Amino acid sequence: MAAGNPYTVKWGIMATGGIAETFCKDLLCDPKVRDAHDVRHEIVAVASSSSKKRAEEFLKTIDGAFDAKTYGSYPELVADPNIDIVYVATPHSHHFQNAMLALEAGKHVLCEKAFTVTAAQTRKLVETAKAKNLFLMEAVWTRYFPLSIQIRKRITSGEIGTVYRTIGDLSFNSNAAEGKGLSFADSHRMINVDLAGGAILDLGVYPLTWVFQTLYHLQPEQDKEAPTVVAASNKYTTGADENTAIICQFPRHNSLGVATTTLRAHSDPENDAVPVIRIQGSEGEIQVFFPAFRPLKYKVVKKNGESQLVDCPIPGDPARNGWGHGMFWEADECARCLRDGKKESATLPWTESIVIMETMEAALKQGGIEYPELITTDVYDPKSPLNTGNQ
Ligand SMILES: NC(=O)c1ccc[n+]([C@@H]2O[C@H](COP(=O)([O-])OP(=O)(O)OC[C@H]3O[C@@H](n4cnc5c(N)ncnc54)[C@H](OP(=O)(O)O)[C@@H]3O)[C@@H](O)[C@H]2O)c1
């Protein structure tokens, strides 16, 4: 690579759903618009589990990467020698088998949250990436936002003193217009246990992200303490959790995290009336506003009453009709790690992904939530219907 040329990463996209579309539109934004001059992204292949035609339609939807190869199956995608890294954007039920498929084919992997359904699956992914000397990252995009980076720096610099507590919520009012049901069909991935549905794995991971990036990630390396977890869930008729509260206690660090999520009420029904994350220290607190996964502003409130509101807008690319969702920052992180030969991101190391998955697993267990064997096994099967598209 000539000096000054940006490092290019070639992406293979696994799945053609909602988040794959959003992520790909971000990959197509000019990195210079967000002041990233050292890396760039190319979408070189897209696969749908249903048909090659669906993958072709996807390129029209994202309005770009028209030269990308299109495949009608995931095994064909991972065999493409032109791909550096596979973005796994299937339902979480599929993540373990799909990410293993890519790793076994020698591809680096960025896998959507929730990383897996069980902690053993996350551990197996990490072992495999390590053994094969491949990069692997859980796609918790919020951690790579300038807003998150600023907040972690403010905490480290002692601006709000010793942090004793982080409270976070991500909830949506998904009540059906009539009756006591939810607005999703029972088959929808949000509440279908065959697709690892439920509030914890889909939404709870975000308030937990705030608990972890403020109370766990910033603990000194030599004194890392995983939380003890107390949780309760209310179950929906499908067996998925619809309303969950998780307490994470870090006794040695004298801190507590509380993460809540529900499909029955909204985090902030009045829009900006309440902070959805509060990071509370001895000298003040940092308040983050809705939504926990894509916050655009935060407020620092000091003990002496001083306060500062900080806007952190997401830059839009004028050449892409102003598009910019904020997923490009995690993509840039992948690019820089690949360029520098790193196998994991320091912002979300493997050990931390494992502890987060252990926390969610403990919450699911205490809530009595059970998922089928097909999606909880940690035995990789390339012929699993989750890989071959028959499920
Ligand atoms: N980072 C974020 O902000 C964010 C936001 C939303 C979702 N997510 C995560 O991204 C993942 C996908 O969510 P999504 O909202 O994109 O879901 P979605 O719109 O339902 O898309 C999922 C895609 O997965 C593929 N798929 C393969 N087997 C499937 C099956 N049996 N049932 C349904 N889909 C199947 C399908 O694409 P093909 O068959 O065409 O390949 C489908 O379009 C989830 O793990 C979710 O938690 C992350």
TrEMBL record:
The keyword Transit peptide does not apply. Residues 10-137 form the Gfo/Idh/MocA-like oxidoreductase N-terminal domain. SUPFAM superfamilies: Glyceraldehyde-3-phosphate dehydrogenase-like, C-terminal domain, NAD(P)-binding Rossmann-fold domains. It comes from the Eukaryota. It catalyses: D-xylose + NADP(+) = D-xylono-1,5-lactone + NADPH + H(+). The keyword Ribonucleoprotein does not apply. Keywords: Oxidoreductase. One of its GO terms (molecular function) is nucleotide binding. Its EC number is 1.1.1.179. Residues 150-286 form the GFO/IDH/MocA-like oxidoreductase domain. It holds the Pfam family GFO_IDH_MocA_C3. InterPro entries: Gfo/Idh/MocA-like_OxRdtase_N, Gfo/Idh/MocA_domain, GFO_IDH_MocA-like_dom, NAD(P)-bd_dom_sf. Belongs to the Gfo/Idh/MocA family. This is D-xylose 1-dehydrogenase (NADP(+), D-xylono-1,5-lactone-forming).
